[in-house]
Every structure is written in C-alpha cells, then in structure tokens.
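Researcher: I'd like a candidate sequence for this fold, 135 residues long. If you have to choose between options at a position, lean toward the conservative one.
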C-alpha cells in the first residue's frame, strides 16, 4: 500500500505542477510600454511662434514677449505641448514663427523617434529686430 500511496502522491504532485505551469502560461505576459510622452519646449527667446508635430499631437504656441516693456514674466505656452505617441514612432516637427518673429534655433532634435524614456524637442523664437535672450 505504501508503494501505491507514494505513487499517488507523485502523480498528484505532477498533476499539480502541470496545472500551475498551465496557469502561469495562460497569464498574459507583461506588455512592454506601448506609448510614451513627447514634449515640445519653446525656450525664452522673446519671440513668438508655434511648433507642431507630424503625426499630429503637439500644437504648442508661445506668444512674443518683451521683458523690458512690461516687467512681467514670460507667459506660459498655450496649446498642447506634451502628447503621447506610440513607442518607435518617428515624429517630425515644424516651427512657424509669428509675424515679427523668426526661428533662432530648432526644432532640435528633429525628428524624434519616441522611446520609453524622456522624449523632447525644443525651439527658440526671437523677435525679427534681433533682440533675443541667450536662452
């Protein structure tokens, strides 16, 4: 009887192990991050303009600002300056200055291939009269 009892325990153990393995295998694997944030920064060049993305998602506008005229801090950008994109998507940016402004630098980097970490691009708009901050 001992022999069959040991055999029964072994059989039960094998069946239990197989059931646990099947349950583990049926659980969906942990998915890799499928989307990530991408931010567009408009630096304080004192000019105004908009940066947009292709594919669509970012449409970020910075108003021109003269720190000597008002003494007020530069207004925050408006629109969508951060958006989610699928990881591995290549995003291309277009910077368009407002009338009276020009692009001093950027968008940099351009394009951006979205990764699972920190993703960004930036641009600096300056007034067409040449007055521009150091960034």
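Model: Candidate sequence:
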């Amino acid at each position: 009887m001992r022999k069959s009892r040991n055999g029964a325990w072994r059989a039960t153990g094998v069946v239990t192990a197989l059931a646990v393995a099947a349950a583990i295998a049926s659980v969906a694997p942990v998915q890799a991050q499928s989307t990530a944030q991408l931010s567009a920064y408009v630096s304080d060049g004192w000019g105004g303009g908009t940066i947009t993305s292709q594919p669509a998602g970012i449409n970020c506008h910075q108003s021109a600002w003269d720190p000597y005229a008002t003494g007020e801090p530069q207004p925050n950008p408006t629109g969508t300056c951060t958006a989610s994109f699928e990881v591995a998507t290549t995003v291309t940016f277009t910077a368009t200055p407002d009338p009276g402004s020009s692009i001093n630098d950027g968008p940099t980097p351009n394009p951006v291939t979205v990764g699972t970490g920190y993703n960004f691009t930036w641009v600096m708009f300056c007034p067409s009269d040449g007055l521009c901050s150091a960034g």
